């Protein structure tokens, strides 16, 4: 009896039992990435105490945009599973577009609250690394969305759809890693360090890195050459 199993080059050289253990570990990692994305968004929103000031809405909106929506918009295509019920790729693509639109909307709203807050307090704009990274991340997000639109018109760019998808996925990974760096830099802000201290602060610092690793693994495995083993 021949059983062909398609797998990532990462699993090459493993026996069947070790390979399936590796597959289940990947599934657990994806579930953990979902949990971290939702959990961090909820915790940061609670710590921000939305409504107490104009600034309080900034971390809420940005965590919803980048910790939650951007993460879920990419994990939607994970072969290890997703909380969404769509199985057809067409449905996933449409949901991906909707989620990415929410990313831009929530991020732009968060930036608007930050600008309003600094105008009221008469503090300078773009005075920290976090703010500079944030502007760069938002600009990269908008450009990435524009690149996504190009997938609808591949003939105009005279590129094959697979190549366009590769470019889109690669740029998406760059945007996500940039967003992760921006989120981590926020942990060093005066507001966050005054709100969260001790061991908990280190947990907040490290947790955003895990979904980034999962997404990096997802994208690289999706576009690296695959092989088959036969038993």
From TrEMBL:
It is a multi-pass membrane protein. Keywords: Electron transport, Heme, Iron, Membrane, Metal-binding, Transmembrane, Transmembrane helix, Transport. It is found in: Membrane. Residues 24-226 form the Cytochrome b561 domain. The lineage of its organism: Eukaryota, Metazoa, Chordata, Craniata, Vertebrata. This is ascorbate ferrireductase (transmembrane). InterPro entries: CYB561D1/2 (IPR045150), Cyt_b561/ferric_Rdtase_TM (IPR006593). Its EC number is 7.2.1.3. PANTHER family: OS05G0565100 PROTEIN, TRANSMEMBRANE REDUCTASE CYB561D1-RELATED. The keyword Transmembrane helix applies. It is an enzyme of class 7 (translocase). GO terms for cellular component: membrane. Its cofactor is heme b. Gene3D superfamilies: 1.20.120.1770. GO terms for molecular function: metal ion binding; transmembrane ascorbate ferrireductase activity; transmembrane monodehydroascorbate reductase activity. The chain crosses the membrane at residues 28-48, 54-77, 97-117, 129-154, 166-188, 200-219. It comes from Salmo trutta.
């Amino acid at each position: 009896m021949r059983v062909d199993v398609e797998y990532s080059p990462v699993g090459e050289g493993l026996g069947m039992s070790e390979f399936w253990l590796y597959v289940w570990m990947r599934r657990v990692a994806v579930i953990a990435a979902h949990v971290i994305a939702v959990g961090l968004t909820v915790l940061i929103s609670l710590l921000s105490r939305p409504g107490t000031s104009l600034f309080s809405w900034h971390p809420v909106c940005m965590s919803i945009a980048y910790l939650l929506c951007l993460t879920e918009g990419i994990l939607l295509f994970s072969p290890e599973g997703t909380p969404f019920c769509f199985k057809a790729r067409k449905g996933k693509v449409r949901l991906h577009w909707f989620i990415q639109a929410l990313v831009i909307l929530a991020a732009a709203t968060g930036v608007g609250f930050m600008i309003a807050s600094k105008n009221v307090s008469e503090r300078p704009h773009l005075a920290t690394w976090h703010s500079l990274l944030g502007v760069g991340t938002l600009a990269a997000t908008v450009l990435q969305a524009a690149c996504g639109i190009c997938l609808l018109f591949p003939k105009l760019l005279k590129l094959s759809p697979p190549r366009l998808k590769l470019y889109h996925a690669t740029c998406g990974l760059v945007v996500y890693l940039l967003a992760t760096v921006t989120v981590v830099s926020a942990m060093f802000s005066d507001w966050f360090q005054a709100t969260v201290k001790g061991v908990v602060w280190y947990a907040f610092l490290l947790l955003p890195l895990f979904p980034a690793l999962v997404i990096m693994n997802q994208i690289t495995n999706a576009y690296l050459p695959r092989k088959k083993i036969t038993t």
